[in-house]
Write a structure and sequence with these properties.
46 residues; mainly alpha; 9% strand
């Protein structure tokens, strides 16, 4: 699952509005982030 902040930059996370899943990522962008996350987890042994 991915979460996207709807508020502009600078709004504190606790005061922001979010939507899940993220709405503005293309599938290709989502897959790039997913693959990077998996690579990091494997590297640190999670």
């Amino acid at each position: 699952c991915s979460i996207e902040n709807v508020d502009p930059m600078g709004v504190h996370t606790g005061d922001s509005i979010t939507v899940a899943p993220a709405l503005t990522l293309t599938d290709k962008e989502f897959q790039i982030m997913r693959n990077a996350s998996i690579a990091v987890m494997r590297e640190i042994g999670v």
